[in-house]
């Protein structure tokens, strides 16, 4: 029988648990109307820990949206009209939520199906799993859910023991009162005549002895019950600590690491819904056990029995308070980081969230969050719990925000929409450090109470490091600082220490991640591209990738020291390439039309073996953000001699006048894109369409690029009367300055 059919038959707490799985992140209506399709997909075939599986997840997301749209289209009638609108809205919502992180959709649906199957299995009181999905679920997630199940059973067990203890203690108190009544009767015998006293005293003494023996025996039993309950609580708290460590120190830290790498262009960190559901389960279990320990303490005070229980309960109370304190302070997180390159007098946003806020009813008295910018030194002092005297390193406008509870999603968050850094106070810089290497952080802090002011928490969280700039010209150097920090920061570091040098392959991973994100391309940097970058970085001529595997690059080599013979650093050159490609060359890069990372000598070697008119596109060595065309042709000064020519590099300024495709179209001597593709086959789809005929007697001119030495007359001058030929801004490079190579 389908899981969904059985899930709809759940009752009571199980039904409530099942309903709580759904929300804005995955509406229950989608589960209902696509139940057969959802249960028929191979969700467990996707490895959530493997980013390469993202394309499979994307295919499932697209199919899910298509199924929803199909379902919407088939709705008819008055009720069908409303459902059609609703399902169409859900299709758009799911696409918007998971388009950039389809693996999170798979994670979400796996969690839903696993939980539904568990709830159905428990309701049927059956130990056999429904289908084979549970067996193939992620082992880690299974362990987390199994631990929660164990905690639920332990907590229920101690609850039952506590009730039994309370019942026995109440009966003990009744019997104790009975012993006091017997004692009072014995005392009153003194006022009776001796004959009456002798008649009644033996019976009362016997009854007193029986009750006192029972009380002594029962007091020992109660003490054993109390100790047994305390030991069970110790076991529960040990498991709670372990589970909390897995969720906070493993899963949440991994999410934060993914968030940090997303700042470098890595895949999105994914939603927090599953993490929040785990944290809420932790909060609920911790709170239940805390209440049990308090009730046990109340029973002890009500009936003190000498023994070690008082100290045990104090320890348990202290431990459970530590656990809940760690949970609350660790789950106050930054869901949306502020920009890491922060320009003064510019609006920016950030969102903070408390993952356990809804479960602990923090929203009943909405807390206020304050944002402050602090320096690296102040951040260090803060983490050492040193008194920072509310120091800040600048002034942020609109830096207070009240946390809001969103009923539909069950989230408690504060969204700072209009912050602006009014001024910044810089510290004394060390050695060669520039202003774009100085790191700050945004400190978010708040205070709230739990359990009706029973516990009050001061919570603080630091943003990822930010670099403050005052002018756009500082952006690329600031980005280098952020890139290095995001890529190479180690978990639990002292703010904001990073290694001064890293292995070249590590840097390659960071550069490739950044390049793909900036250019928004699936075509990253190839091994040949990375060898070219290594040659540039290390002034090396080796073409063997293995030669660079164990080499290290320092921060100074990356973005402090200029490249040999240049007035710019390695990063500045690479950043210029990314900017140019992102703004003007993206389609050509994606098509594979740009080799790009090729030096002049390599271009010469590649082209000289090809027919005349063969050309390639490579990034300029001598200019930041430049690309040049190299082609092979006859030497006009020497008959029969061939040579490689290089145009002066094009920059963003040139492409704002005329596109690369149009410039290539203009140059009739360029025939084949290396190795042998006809240029029109590659670039024609990007050519600007011809201008329309003259209007009102006016002919509109169009700029056309020419290279004088290779200009050929138009075969049909009347064919394009609207063109005006202009001397092109890039001219043929002069041999002595721009390296026109002689024939080989």
Draw up the topology in text.
Blueprint lengths: L2 H5 L4 H8 L8 H6 L1 H5 L14 H20 L3 H22 L3 H22 L9 H4 L2 H50 L5 H69 L10 H30 L6 H22 L1 E5 L4 E3 L3 E8 L13 E8 H8 L10 E4 L2 E3 L1 E3 L4 E14 L15 E11 L4 E8 L4 E3 L5 H14 L12 E3 H16 L7 H12 L13 E3 H5 L10 H22 L8 H8 L6 E6 L7 E8 L7 E5 L5 H4 L4 H7 L5 E2 L3 E2 H5 L19 E2 L19 E2 L9 H4 L6
Parallel strand pairs: 2-11, 14-17, 19-20
Antiparallel strand pairs: 1-3, 3-8, 4-6, 4-9, 5-8, 7-8, 9-10, 12-13, 14-15, 15-16, 17-18
Helix pairs in contact: 2-7, 5-6, 5-7, 9-10, 9-11, 10-11, 10-12, 11-12, 14-15
GO cellular component, one term: nucleus
Protein name: Signal transducer and activator of transcription
Main location: cytoplasm
Structure characterization notes:
Residues 589-690 form the SH2 domain. Helices cover 49% and strands 14% of the residues. The chain has four domains: 3-126, Transcription Factor, Stat-4 (Orthogonal Bundle); 160-327, Glutathione S-transferase Yfyf (Class Pi), Chain A, domain 2, CATH 1.20.1050.20; 337-426 and 434-490, Sandwich (Immunoglobulin-like); 503-686, SH2 domain (SHC Adaptor Protein, 2-Layer Sandwich). Mean pLDDT is 84; it is low at 126-137 and 714-744. The longest helix is centred in the first third of the chain and has 69 residues, at 194-262. The protein contains 23 helices and 20 strands.
